[in-house]
Amino acid sequence: MLRELRGQLPSESTLYLGDEARMPYGPRPTGEVVAFTREAVRWLAAWDCKLIVLACNTATSVALELVRDETDVPVIGVIRPGAAAAVAASSRRAIGVLATSGTVRSGAYVRALRDLDPLVDVVQQACPKLVPLVEAGEADSDDAEAAIREYVGPLLEDGAVVSPAIDTLLLGCTHYPLLRERLTKVAGPRVRIVDSAATTALAVREVLESHRLTRQDADPRHRVFATGPVEHFAAVAMAIFGGAGSRIFPEIERADLAAHSRS
Asked: Backbone phi, then psi, for 155, in 5-degree steps?
């Protein structure tokens, strides 16, 4: 998500908060995810930013409307843009959604997709094994492919009158695009794979442009914060992105959300 935002808005400064200490959010109870998201949004808003992106599908699915009501800073989630991309890509209105357990439980993608197209057929699949594999740097491993086959296979086959049963696969977690090569292999050439990162970045750009908030001639500054040990965050970034990790996250600072809340 951060890479897409920097690519589409090269003049904008960015402030990134990775809640490494408490991830993954997907398996957590809804109340915990809401509390963590509220805390993170308050922390970000205190930096006087002009827009906040919830780059987490689980947080978006259960807390977006609440944090929008609680802050004066505009907040954009990743679910609506991802759903719009899937509807635009689908030719048969047959969409499969891969997501965390929390996002699947919320039904947020089903609602968003059917708001955009009431006739769309949607089938969801929770994928608890995928985020830990990505975080461990195993996105291109045989274990990752085996997990993908476990999750994607039923979406392709169950109840199929036409094969494959879906024509579009929506990646409902911001970790999953890092599995795209293996996902494409398993899903096959007749299934389009879409994610929310590029579409969300475009939505951010459109909001800033429509409110004349874009910077054209600025020298952007990028800061990256993590709630857990910065060494671990850096190691995960390198495992996921390889050499590009040091360019995306050149310097990582520690964020203490609890101390900020107390102040």
From this structure: -65, -30
Nearest CA to 165 among 155, 173, 175?
155
Of how many residues is the chain composed? 263
Distance between CA atoms of 255 and 228, rounded to whole angstroms? 8
Active site residue 127: no
Distance in angstroms (rounded) separating the CA atoms of residues 260 and 201:
28
Q: Domains plus CATH for the chain?
A: 2-78+198-262 (3.40.50.1860), 79-195 (3.40.50.1860)
**pLDDT tens across 211-263, in order?**
999 987 778 999 999 999 898 888 888 877 777 777 788 789 999 887 655 44
Spot the catalytic one: 1, 33, 56, 144. Answer: 56
Choose among 174, 173, 176: nearest CA to 139: 176
- What is the mean pLDDT of the segment spanning 93-106? 95
Nearest CA to 232 out of 245, 219, 218, 214 is that of 245
Please confirm, yes or no, whether 56 is among the known catalytic residues. Answer: yes
User: pLDDT at position 179, please?
Assistant: 94
- In order, the DSSP letters of 65-92 are HHHHHH-SS-EE-SHHHHHHHHHHH-SS
What is the per-residue pLDDT across 133-180, written as a single tens digit (0 to 9) for each? 998 889 999 999 999 999 999 999 876 667 899 999 999 998 899 999
Alpha-carbon distance of 48 to 245, in angstroms, equals 27
pTM, whole model, 2 decimals? Answer: 0.88
From the list 97, 173, 179, 224, the catalytic residue is 173
